[in-house]
Amino acid sequence: MKELNIGGLIARVPIIQGGMAVGISRSGLASAVANAGGVGVIATAGIGHLADDLYSNFIGANNRIIVEEIRKAKSLTKGVIGVNIMVALSNYALLVKIAIEEGIDVIFSGAGLPLNLPSFLPEGNTHTKLVPIVSSGKALTVIARRWISKFNYVPDAVVVEGPLAGGHLGFRKDNLFNEEYSLEKLVPDVLAHAKALEDKYGAPIPVISAGGIFTGSDIHKFIKMGASAVQMGTRFVATYECDASDEIKNAYIKASKEDIIIIDSPVGMPGRAIRDPFLDEVSSGHKKPFNCPFHCIITCDFKTAPYCIAKALCNATEGNLSEGFAFAGQNVWRIDKIVHVSELIKSLENEYNEAEEKV
Q1: Looking at residue 300, what is its pLDDT?
Q2: Are 169 and 220 in contact (CB under 8 A)?
Q3: What 3-state class would DSSP assign to 97?
Q4: What b-and-e string marks burial along 206-237, b requiring 16 or more CB atoms within 10 Å of the CB?
Q5: Helix, strand or coil for residue 197?
């Protein structure tokens, strides 16, 4: 595998660990991935789920804990550390500012178009790299034109996430299994748009493939297609270093192909998760009454939602799957054991090399 270069920021292995929210990817997992040569990513949504003042001071608790997590990760590695900050978060601007102030290496931003992300960079700040997450080449061009016209800033890279990813998905439900929206179709489209921008503005925009990538052979396929790297989330949950509860890790190992379902999330997007009794109750029409203490996602219609997704994910992260559920990618059923991050990276490299020898 060739190293990944994002605006002069170098990762030995072209693998980015996807940001998985509400405590799944914190400093423990992110630092382990960075130490193994990849890009470790802390997810900021719901990062303060264990804080004592979470319910009374949701925004403040999350803002405080992300500082602690970034500092802890940086103390554990000299590798590349990023954060994932969803545009739809009600404290989006604060989290971006905090991450930049803490000297984060990369900000990955999706779940909406991060049209104003460069506005938060102080003048002269060239350390933090800005990477939008998109589901089409058109979205990249819209974002790039805005960044360039308003802020004179070309995206440092772009993540194109396909419909086989876990968690919330940037596609209509009826397009999730439509071949025309497969990652194999999306990557060439984004590569073409990135190339047009590169030619016009003279700055490289590495394309990072994401969503359903499972093996080193998968990585090889997309690298040969023209991508500079891949992003993987699901594989990293089943590692000893992952910050998720043992219950979530065991749910990953036990999941069958039939257990992977698409849900209608209260935030107004489809999501991919592992079926469990909690989701069965919701799908049967059972409501879980709640008072919204968080107001964490601006698109969430909490007045009509059948449950609080933030609370459900907090419960799962704390090991209480009877009152929550686990998000996961389409290929989670292929995982059969927990390994160390270093083992996983090594096995992916070996599989990549085997695929390269067959060319």
Answers
A1: 64
A2: no
A3: helix
A4: bbbbbbbbbbbebbbbbbeeebbbbbbbbbbb
A5: helix
Neighbours of 121 (CB within 10 A): 18
Q: Which tokens belong to 161? A: 């996430």
Q: What pLDDT does 345 receive?
A: 98
Q: Please name the helix (run of DSSP H) or strand (run of DSSP E) that holds residue 263, with its range, or none.
A: strand 260-264
Among residues 33, 15, 24, 83, the alpha carbon closest in space to that of 328 is found at 24
Closest CA to 49 of 83, 86, 88, 23: 23
Model confidence at 74: pLDDT above 70: yes
Question: Which residues pair with residue 80 across a beta bridge?
Answer: 39
Q: Which of 211, 163, 270, 248 is nearest to 16 (CA)?
A: 211
> For 82-91, 242-251, 294-303, 345-354, which range has the lowest pLDDT when averaged over its residues?
294-303
Rounded Cα–Cα distance for residues 286 and 276 (Å): 14
Give residue-wise pLDDT tens across range 35-48.
Answer: 999 999 999 988 88
- Give the predicted TM-score (pTM) of the model: 0.93
pLDDT recorded at residue 290: 64
How far apart, in whole angstroms, are the C-alpha atoms of residue 334 and residue 233? 14
Q: In angstroms, rounded to a whole number, what is the distance separating the alpha carbons of residues 99 and 72?
A: 13
Pairing of strands 4-6, 106-109: unpaired
Question: Across the strands, what pairs with 209?
Answer: 160, 230
The answer to whether residue 14 scores a pLDDT higher than 70 is yes
Predicted pLDDT of residue 132: 98
